[in-house]
């Protein structure tokens, strides 16, 4: 398991360790994660630099990580963790940073549409127990105001029988909704 | 061979041809798929970004329902669902406290004794077990097997194939008469769930994948993931815009290629549902087999 040292009390690195068991101190900055990251060149900080920001335990640098675009653009493709010589589970750290950034309202402005997508996706499941693609896309358009996006694609999909008009509500839909609400309450409690 | 079956939301929606072709092939190779009753969405792309507990509880409900069927194996054809389910088993087995918290949330008993299996391993096993399935029409094409991320990573969780250069799909393709190519993008990411929110990034990543496949002489890409398929096929217009060139190479599900080789028709396999036409590829196949017959 990870050796945990040199993280500052109450820093983001410490919170990550408490909640995921991942120690940012394990990283010795070889840069292999960034070499393999498909989006390293498209983000504000390549993945190794996100870890570097967290290694100091400094609140200004922690803030930079929380407000970065990287954490939102991460595709969770797991290439970094599969190749890390120190077995740092970077996608898990990215998940934690996303959740915190979202919860604290510190998400990068360019992440707006990505968050809108997540809201639409999860909202769809909460409603019927399954993800209803057409409903999810309409809700996403409403949230992101991208009304024109994929307008030409839609009829082609319909023609090929790939879009359904009605959602399927599962018998356990209420159970799924309770599950959503319970996790939301728990999230609130730990704040 | 009898397995529990969790199709997932994509397979009953925009990736319905994956479901159709899997069902059609299963009938031929005597693979009995028992759909999990009242399954829910696994939360895939979004659950883990929003809430850790939620991202485990949604798949856990599916696992609990699968356990009730009494079947040991659970086939999860969608790579994203497969990854979420197998990760949930892995995390909850390692953490009993978390497991009991999740059990309370889903209001169901949870033993975690089903084996989450992907479509490649189950197809291989079923085809080997069923000695009677014959290759009626060899799928004689040069193919680029595209595994994507979630079938092989994280290696210690999925424990399937080789994470950097997997071969299981290549072997399946070889078994039906295809020629799998050596290429560089087998396990590169297509952009997955960013398809709506960051379409231009997805297009860029997919352009690289198609570019290499075409440069190596592939006639078609073979995939086992509905998200990879959607991005490479449905997003073709965006990809071409990003690349500044056209790509005519089709993208087929592994089950469609196998189905054709077993003698099933393109319609039964849902090939008409693709955005990128598979017609020229199929026509070439008919032509070459006619040539073979004459010579």
Q: What's this model, at a glance?
A:
The complex is a heterodimer of chains A (191) and B (295). With 191 residues, chain A is an all-alpha fold. Chain A has helices at 12-20, 32-36, 47-55, 59-66, 70-73, 79-83, 90-103, 112-128, 133-144, 153-159, 173-189.
Could you characterize what this model shows?
The complex is a heterodimer of chains A (191) and B (295). Chain A has 191 residues and is mainly α. Chain A has helices at residues 12-20, 32-36, 47-55, 59-66, 70-73, 79-83, 90-103, 112-128, 133-144, 153-159, 173-189. In chain A, helix 3 packs antiparallel against helix 4, helix 8 (112-128) packs antiparallel against helix 9 (133-144) and helix 8 (112-128) crosses helix 11 (173-189). With 295 residues, chain B is an alpha/beta fold. Chain B has 2 domains: 2-120, Glutathione S-transferase Yfyf (Class Pi), Chain A, domain 2; 135-294, Rossmann fold, CATH 3.40.50. Chain B is 49% helix and 9% strand. A 4-stranded parallel sheet of chain B has the order 2-1-3-4. A 4-stranded parallel sheet of chain B has the order 6-5-7-8, sandwiched between helices. In chain B, helix 1 (16-28) packs parallel to helix 12 and helix 4 (79-94) packs across helix 5. The termini of chain B are far apart. Residues 289-295 of chain B have low confidence and may be disordered. Classes of the chains: A mainly alpha (191), B alpha/beta (295). Chains A and B meet through helix 6, helix 7, helix 8, helix 9 and helix 10 of A and helix 2, helix 3 and helix 9 of B.
CATH class identity of the largest domain in chain B: Alpha Beta
The poorly predicted ranges of chain B are 289-295
Strand-and-helix sequence of chain A, N→C?
Answer: HHHHHHHHHHH
User: What does the average pLDDT of chain A come to?
Assistant: 92
Radius of gyration of chain A: 19 Å
Class of the largest domain in chain A, according to the CATH hierarchy?
Mainly Alpha
Describe the global form of chain B.
Answer: globular
How many distinct folded domains of chain A?
Answer: 2
Distance between the termini of chain B: 40 Å
Main structural class of chain A: mainly alpha
> Per DSSP, what share of the residues of chain B sits in E-state strands of 2 or more residues?
5-15%
Fill in the CATH topology of the largest domain in chain B.
Answer: Rossmann fold
State the domain count of chain B.
2
What's the overall average pLDDT of chain B, rounded?
94
> What summary fits the major beta sheet of chain A?
none
What Rg of chain B do the Cα atoms give? 19 Å
The major sheet of chain B is characterized as: 4 strands, parallel
- The sequence of SSEs of chain B as H and E is EHEHHEHHEHEHHEHEHHEHH
